[in-house]
Automatic annotation (TrEMBL):
InterPro entries: Fatty_acid_desaturase-2, Ferritin-like_SF, RNR-like
Organism expressing this protein natively: Tenacibaculum holothuriorum
GO terms for MF: metal ion binding; stearoyl-[ACP] desaturase activity
Membrane-spanning residues: none
Protein name stated in the entry: Fatty acid desaturase
Length: 326
């Protein structure tokens, strides 16, 4: 059997548990929070006062913080890219009897609330040029992405395990900074978004864990492949109006590092957490090649930590079109 067909078989085996995955890792729609729960109530007499208060305190947070939040929001808003990518994986089809499609749709439906609430908050803050933010979002969706996984579910689930944790970290750091500055509403919404990301992270790590039980060597090689090529960010093609594809990503990343929202150390930390979650050191029945991959993966976090320590974050200021000067 070809590697691709084995993967399809493994996906079929996992698919039998889709309902329990959905029950365990996702929240019923009527019970989960909605964006409106965290935004000023437009039907209340205090609506305008609440917006004024948000606009006042929004002036106190610096540009690096807002740029990070805008980039995170746009990343969430490019959800059509991620849904269509996941629906194209080996073993996933949009046919009604395909359990994986059910997972992907339910996951997408949860994720959709993230960009929704953040976008509305940014709009109310008065701190950013929303039209430019919208142009970047439209570009990002139009540009699509290539995360180097092809249609391989093993590689993809490594990617999503990683990314869900990366977004958890970003949102939780935004929550901490916002709280410190007295931004209660923003802190609350970021914390609750982070909670969703953590559940999603646990789901995707569980899928990988299950694959490790059935096809350990191939799973190990897929993990190694993803880490050797480094995990690219979903917003890799970020650009602003009239900009070249991808030209804005490094500037955004620099701001996020300076703000302390997402840094190179977070990347290393995620690697360690994935190794631990999948108990990479304890997996048995590996081929010689997969044993080598395991060695590589075990040593990688320390190696990357040493490289990260040497990286100097530039303190040059870039004038983002997204930002309105205070
Ligand atoms: Fe999200
Ligand atoms: Fe997510």
């Amino acid at each position: 059997m070809s590697i691709q067909n084995i993967r399809k078989e493994v996906m079929k085996t996992l698919e039998k548990n889709i309902d329990s995955f959905v029950d365990k890792f996702l929240v019923p729609i009527e019970k989960i929070w909605q964006p409106t729960d965290f935004l000023p109530n437009s039907q209340s007499d205090n609506f305008i006062e609440e917006i004024k208060e948000i606009q006042e305190i929004s002036k106190e947070l610096d540009d690096d913080f807002w740029v990070s939040l805008v980039g995170d929001t746009i990343t969430e808003e490019a959800l059509p890219t991620y849904e269509s990518w996941l629906l194209d994986l080996d073993g996933v089809t949009q046919q009604p009897d395909n359990g994986w499609a059910k997972w992907v749709r339910a996951w997408t439906a949860e994720e959709n609330r993230h960009g929704d609430v953040l976008n509305k908050y940014l709009y109310l803050s008065g701190r950013v040029n929303m039209r430019e933010v919208e142009i970047t979002t439209q570009h990002l969706i139009s540009d699509g992405f290539d995360i180097g996984t092809s249609t391989d579910p093993y590689k993809n689930f490594v990617y999503t395990s990683f990314q869900e944790l990366a977004t958890y970290i970003s949102h939780i750091n935004v929550a901490k900074i916002a709280k410190k500055q007295g931004h209660k509403a923003l802190a609350k919404m970021s914390r609750i978004i982070a909670g969703d990301e953590m559940r999603h992270h646990l789901a995707y790590t569980e899928f990988v864990k299950e694959i490790f039980k059935i096809d350990p060597s191939e799973m190990m090689l897929a993990f190694q492949h993803m880490m050797k090529h480094k995990i690219v960010m979903p917003a890799m093609h970020l650009r602003e109006s009239y900009g070249e594809k991808g030209s804005l990503f490094d500037q955004f990343s620099t701001s996020a590092q300076r703000a302390g929202v997402y840094t190179g150390f977070d990347y290393v930390d995620i690697l360690r957490k994935l190794n631990a979650a999948w108990e990479i050191d304890k997996i048995t029945d590996l081929t010689a090649e997969a044993e080598k991959a395991r060695d590589f993966l075990m040593k990688l976090p320390d190696r990357m930590a040493r490289i990260t320590e040497r990286i100097v974050i530039p303190d040059t200021k870039y004038n983002f079109k997204w930002m309105i000067p205070v």
